[in-house]
Predict the 3D structure of the following.
Amino acid sequence: MGGGAIIIAFNYPLLEEKDRNFATIFFKTAIKLEENLYYYPKPNHYMEIDDFALFALKNKLTPENLKVESLYRKNLIQRDLRGKLHGILRREKHIEEKYINKKFFYESRKLFNLSWQWQEYRVAKEQLEYDLIERMQEWYPYPLGFNISIHNVCNLTCVMCPFFSEEFKVNHQTDFFKTKTFLEDKFVYEAIDYCAEASVSNPQLTVGFTAAGEATLDQRLPDFIHYARNKGIPWTYIVTNGTLLHKIGKELLDSGLNRMTISIDGATPETYRKIRGADLNKVEKGVRECVEYARELNAKGHKIEFDLNCVLTDTFCEAQEKELYLSKWEDCRDIIVRIFFTRLVIYDKQGNDINKDKTFSQRDMVCSFPWSNYAIDCYGNVTVCCTMDASSMYQPISIGNVKELGVRGVWNSEMAKKLRKEQLQQQFKRFSLCAGCAEKFKSCFDEDNCVTTKHNLDIK
């Protein structure tokens, strides 16, 4: 852009005088800078939000990429083609490779597709608290991801499981697992309806059907997935140990399931039996049957993909079995798109990971989960992370219960507000377990937007 031209835009509600003053200061600042400037209220810099509150565009405009994005927003091209076209257009402009291959868009994809270089507008703590607590509904009217844990039953007693292994069960201090409990249909369907509302403004919304145990033991699961797909929810997934896929796998895929994360800890039957006490051959047979069926459905226009997750324990010898593990699934990599090798996570009585990297957790970063995550357990309690989930075995803590407040009511409950305020101020009282939590630090970002995930030791 030449001649000192500038494009300015705002999606910031000007309801009070201080709002107008804030917007004025933003644009005055933008005029003085050479860089493009943007603002969106976020608890930390690394949270990805595909929107903007205010921006000022002065240089490096890419109108061709904007056209591609417009086609995608109108559902005229698919996501994969969108990404390829953006890359081609940027290469034609001889843009640096790190921008062409960029995977994380802290300024939002919308702005990145206008220009490839942006500077974030940093605000005072008081302004951030105002936007993220008092006006939270303006910026985060719905969670960005949902997890519905439908029961607390499992068919395995894996040696590393904090829920069902004999070693860890003796340390439980609550009755969470005392009786088999299934979240009532009423609340599951109410949660799905809420997710469907959220998906209208979030085309990448993901809804997971999981359990504090094994999700596929619930015969209602295909009906829940089918209902979610009919409500227009774009992405559904389950997490499973795979032991029942030979029975229910095809039915789940027919119901509209997009994604499965299958936990298989071991490359040989001997290792697998030591860790999970089950038959690896039967599990692998069920997974392969699902892979073949997924190929058939994808050929008809479906979009189905699987992940495999392997927890590294003393029983699983990484050096000896890792390559064998990978080679066994090499012929399935068109459907099995990611294989995770993760370290063992063990929680203490406060719900904290006892093996966390303590030096890494010294970083001063506000957790984004209270503004993004929503997880319902089988008793109706809502949490925002795995650390809070783990507290159910020791000192339960949540932001509310759907049976008391309704599914919609929990997201803006007084307890949810308290959690967000304690996070922003980094002064923890009611949510003391957040003070020592390392989960929010599990991704370490470098200057080139590369990510090293602390829990995922390797991804193939």
User: Anything to note?
Assistant: The first strand starts at residue 7 and ends at 10.
